[in-house]
Each structure stands twice: as C-alpha cells, then as structure tokens.
Design goal:
This protein has 445 residues and is mainly alpha-helical. It has a single domain (3-441), classed as NCX, central ion-binding region (A middle domain of Talin 1), CATH 1.20.1420.30. Helices cover 76% and strands 4% of the residues. The chain has 16 helices and 6 strands. The protein has helices at residues 10-37, 40-75, 80-85, 87-110, 116-153, 164-185, 192-228, 233-242, 249-255, 286-318, 322-334, 336-347, 351-369, 371-380, 391-413, 420-441; strands spanning 160-161, 189-190, 272-275, 280-283, 386-387, 417-418. Strands 1-6 form a two-stranded antiparallel ribbon. It has a two-stranded antiparallel ribbon with strand order 2-5. Residues 1-11 and 259-267 have low confidence and may be disordered.
Length: 445
C-alpha cells in the first residue's frame, strides 16, 4: 500500500496553516515598520519571517516531488534504503542544489568585492557553508526528530531500528566523501576538475546501489516463486531464511501476511501526490508524475533564489559575514523537506528509508550540490581556479562535520537503534555545532 493511504494528522495540517498565516502577518507588520522606521530589529524580524515562509514553500514544493519519486521507486521495485538514498535524497536536496547555484551566480555577478574572482569565491564559500550546515542538520537533527516523534507516535515500537547495511554503505560512503572534500579544501585553490571527481564518485555510489537493487529484486522473485508454488507469504519468507538467505525487514514487510503478489496491484490504493498541506490529492501516473516533478522543481528554484537574497540581506543587517549566516539560516531552511520526508517514512514504518534519506541527502549534497555550483563558478571565472574565502573557517567547518558524523554513526551503530535518550544526545551535538557557527560569526574562529 502506498504511504499516501495513511491518513494525515489533522493537527499537523492546522499547525502548518497557522504557522504560514502567522509568518505572513509577521512579515507584513515588520516589513511595514522596517519601511517607515528603517530599524535593524524590524528588518531582521521581517527577514526571519520570510525565511520561515521560504521553508514552507520549499517543503510544499518538495512534498509532491517526493510522492512522485516514491511512485517511481515503486514502479522499479526499489528497496526502501535505496529509494531513500537516491530518489528521496534527490527530492529533498533540490533546495541545496538550487541555493548553491544561485549563491554562485548572484554573488559573482552582483555581490560585493573588488574583482569578479573575489565575488565568485564569496559565492562558492556560501555554497560550501550551506551544504555543510545542511549536512550537519540532516545527519544529526533529522534522525533525532524522527526518533522523538516516533517515540510518542508509535507506542508499539517507539524506536528507530536501522539495518546495518545503511550504516556500512551510506554512512561509510559519506565519511569517505567528507575526507575527499577536506583534502580538496586544504588546497589554496579549488579547480573545476574537483567537481567532476565528485560526480564520478557519485556515479560509483549509484552503481553500488544498483547492485543492491538487483539483489533485492532477486529475493523478491524467489519469494514470489515460492508463493506461486503454494506457500503463503510468511511461509515463503521462512523458507528463504532457512536456506541461508538474509531477508531484510523492508523485504519481509512487503510480503508478510499477504497472498500472491500478482494479485496485489488491483487491491492497492493508487499512489497520489499531496498538494497544499495534503488538502488535495492528485492520482499519479506516468504523465502526472513527471508534470509534478517539473512544476515542483520550478517552484523550489524560485524559493531558493528568494532564500539567497534573504540570506544576503540578513547578513548585511546583522553586520556579519554571509558565510556564517548561510551555515545556519540557509542550511536549515533548505533542509525542511528532508525533515518532513524522513518523518513520513518513519511514520509508515520505513525506518531504513528515514535514516538512509539523511545519509543519501548528504552524499548528494557533497557530490552534486557542491560540484554543480563549482562548475558554474568556474565557467563564470573563465575556468580559472577559485580561491576560497575563509580558508580557515571552511576547513574547520568540514573537520567538525566529519567529527560529528563519526560520533553520530557510533551512536546509531550501538544496538542499531535510536532511542529517545539518544535523540536528545544528538540534539545536544547540533547545539554544539550552532554554537561553533555563532562564535565563528563573531570572529572567534
């Protein structure tokens, strides 16, 4: 059954609409006060209100995109962990990609700086800050939020349980990408071929996922063959396990308690895309799926351009460098879709998809969301290398990201389970990261 068959929580809809209306009212009032009195407090309040609105627009653009991505995953019979690491990750990482591109383009062509190269360096530095901040948010805060939510929502199993494959595959690959990025950032200049290198490594990661998909589909066919021979689904799973084949929780959940899969499509609730806080449902097919993806992409791109402009103005009004504002403000705003997508996966029992989405989004952020803006920036700079602003803070930020990643992996690896207590520990780690960014904006790093 599609995740869309699960009823929405009315309270969640009410809260979302209330926050949207309150943000609009806040922006109108403080915007009017800003216009007439030109006080920094009114300006910053208005800009923060706009950031909340941008987050909501990005969320509402990416939510139907994610539904369409899941429809594609269903069509290709992808395991939850692979779907979370690829389709869900791409759906939720669109904001980081567009934000990075707009940072490079806007600051290079219209930013502050004596030369175009200096402006380009500021743009790419902001891209790195956004992706690094988003990676920390995804890696630490999203699993924590999912766990806290599930601990209250799912009384029968109030924990997030993770397959070891998610950690050894997605987690280890992310650490490897971080180490490669740190190695590149320690150079004085960033070259266009470094972006190509990351894209090649992402291709290798997708190839590894493809191998896992083929294994998963082979096991599905084995279970289906046993069902055709007269076994029930549960008996077929036990038969496969007794023969030494490992059956993941995701695979077992697709068959457990069911009959012949060939009869299931007619009984399934159609996949639908939720629009405007789930108030409207669009039935997904090959045409509507790609139409939704196209429209969602355009809306997300417009929202990300708005986010870049708001980040610039916020940094100016606060009198701090845009690099440090992007680490927190732009990163958190662009990570909203990841949060809701992971929580939705956890609600329907797909714990692996919830966690692998966070890992997959981070891999996509480093491999693609940094590479594409780097190539765009290199093109605008006549393919000359980009000399980074904030060389020390950028390297320190990436080292902290790698350190926090290792700590988070160790926490998740313990019993392959996240509890409420571990979730609060992860929230503490994120508070340390925010403190680091705030102190850095004050010149302590």
């Amino acid at each position: 059954m599609s995740k869309n068959a699960e009823p929405n929580l009315p309270s969640g809809l009410s809260i979302s609409i209330f926050i949207s209306v309150a943000s609009i009212v806040l922006c109108l009032i403080t915007g009017w006060l800003w216009y007439y009195y030109d006080h920094p407090l009114f300006a910053i309040t208005c800009l923060l209100g706009q950031t909340v609105l941008i987050s909501i627009v990005i969320w509402q653009a990416c939510d139907p995109f994610a539904d369409a991505a899941e429809f594609i995953g269903h069509q290709f019979r992808l395991p939850g962990s692979v779907r979370g690491a690829t389709l869900d990750a791409v759906a939720s990482s669109m904001p980081e990609l567009f934000t990075g591109i707009f940072f490079v383009v806007v600051l290079t062509l219209g930013g502050t700086g004596e030369t175009e190269a200096a402006r380009g360096a500021a743009g790419f530095s902001s891209t790195l800050a956004t992706c690094a901040g988003s990676a920390v948010y995804n890696m630490i805060l999203i699993p924590a939020i999912c766990t806290i939510f599930i601990s209250f929502y799912r009384k029968s199993r109030p924990t997030i349980d993770i397959e070891r494959r998610v950690i050894t595959r997605d987690g280890a690959w992310f650490v490897a990408m971080e180490i490669l990025l740190i190695g590149f950032l320690m150079q004085q200049k960033i070259h266009w071929w470094m972006g190509v290198t990351f894209l090649v490594f992402y291709g290798l990661y997708v190839a590894i996922l493809y191998i896992d998909v083929k294994r998963f589909q082979t096991k599905m066919k084995q279970i289906e063959s046993l069902i055709v021979e007269g076994f029930s689904a549960d008996q077929a799973i036990l038969q496969l396990k007794s023969s030494g084949v490992k059956v993941s929780r995701d695979l077992a959940a697709r068959f457990s308690g069911k009959g012949n899969p060939s009869s299931e499509p007619d009984q399934e609730v159609p996949f639908v895309a939720k629009v405007f806080f789930g108030s409207f449902h669009l039935i997904l097919n090959q045409l509507t799926c790609w139409l939704i993806i196209s429209v969602s992409t355009l809306v997300a791109a417009a929202a990300c351009y708005w986010l870049v402009e708001v980040t610039k103005m916020t940094a100016d009004k606060m009198g701090v460098d845009i690099f440090f504002v992007a680490v927190i403000l732009a990163a958190a705003a662009s990570s909203i879709p990841d949060t809701f997508l992971s929580v939705a996966s956890a609600r329907k029992g797909d714990d692996d998809g919830a966690v692998s989405n966070a890992f997959g989004s981070n891999i996509f952020d480093i491999s693609v969301c940094i590479s594409i803006p780097l190539l765009v920036g290199s093109y605008l700079n006549d393919w000359n290398p980009i000399e980074l602003d904030h060389q020390g803070p950028i390297t320190g930020l990436q080292i902290m990201l790698a350190s926090l990643t290792v700590i988070t992996l160790l926490i998740i690896s313990h019993n392959l389970q996240l509890t409420r207590r571990k979730a609060f520990l992860l929230c503490g780690l994120y508070a340390i990261f925010v403190a680091y960014a705030v102190l850095g904006s004050q010149g302590y790093f």
